[in-house]
Amino acid sequence: MFFLEAYVLVMVFGARGLTGSSLLEKSAWKVLEEVCEHLRSFTKETKELNARYHKLLSDIDKDSPQAAIIRSLLDN
């Protein structure tokens, strides 16, 4: 649903200053493709950080000072 909403917003707000519907469509699709690429990149980075976080937590003692630091960072 997000992608459809993004496309509609681009079509509505991206129309300013452009003439011709084909130019507008190409421009809107380009912006939508860029948004999708950023979302894919963000998803990849999130998955990598999640894997690092799980490895870090599995390698430390739950009662250690390092675990307390991690918990305090995540609570904020």
TrEMBL record:
Single GO MF annotation: protein dimerization activity
Membrane-spanning parts: none
Keywords: Signal
Annotated Pfam families: bHLH_ILI (PF23174)
GO biological process: regulation of DNA-templated transcription; regulation of growth
Signal peptide: 1-17
Listed InterPro entries: PRE
Top-level taxon in the UniProt lineage: Eukaryota
PANTHER family: TRANSCRIPTION FACTOR PRE, TRANSCRIPTION FACTOR PRE5
Protein name: Basic helix-loop-helix leucine zipper transcription factor
Native organism: Helianthus annuus (Common sunflower)
Lineage of the species this protein comes from: Eukaryota, Viridiplantae, Streptophyta, Embryophyta, Tracheophyta
